[in-house]
Design goal:
nine-stranded antiparallel beta sheet
Length: 164
């Protein structure tokens, strides 16, 4: 099944929801989403960007950083803080982009913090991932993230399918 998305607006700004069913148990989908070595593998599956690194401190208050590099050498580095961690069930965390994502350490953020909720719903031997991205400040930004999240989720699905 392909990813589905549902962009809307709520009281705290624009939001989007992307859902995808995986023919894999919830633990497998969770691990692909949260383990740095798996993140860098599925993010390197074809959209022209290379995942240079991923750091994950998976605990409430812990931070993450995912550094991507385009073919022309430009960096896009996302970072944030985990607000809720329920293993194999649910993650809630902030999401922002670094101003200059080319360094190897956490850098200064743009200051356009948004919030992600990722749910991992067990459905028999399958998993339904529901990603909700909230507090986006414009329709344009929301629409760019719909495109990005849909690509990422599909890339992760291909990765999981190849690792069966």
């Amino acid at each position: 099944m392909n990813a589905e998305n549902n962009p809307t607006k709520n009281a705290t700004g624009h939001m989007l929801v992307v859902t995808r069913e995986f023919d894999a148990p919830r633990e497998r989908v969770w691990n692909a989403w949260t383990e740095p070595n798996q993140i860098t593998q599925w993010l390197n599956m074809g959209d022209g960007m290379v995942a240079e690194s991923a750091r994950v401190d998976l605990r409430v208050g812990g931070k993450f950083r995912i550094q991507l590099k385009t073919a022309d050498g430009e960096y896009y580095t996302a970072a944030g803080t985990y607000l809720e961690v329920r293993p194999f069930e649910r993650l809630v965390y902030t999401w922002d982009w670094e101003k200059d994502g080319g360094g190897t350490e956490f850098g200064e953020l743009e200051g356009k913090e948004t919030q992600l909720t990722v749910e991992f719903r067990a459905e028999s031997s399958r998993t339904k991932l529901v990603l909700t991205h909230e507090k986006l400040d414009s329709v344009e930004r929301r629409d760019r993230h719909v495109t990005g999240w849909t690509r990422w989720v599909e890339s992760m699905a291909k990765f999981i399918e190849t690792k069966k």
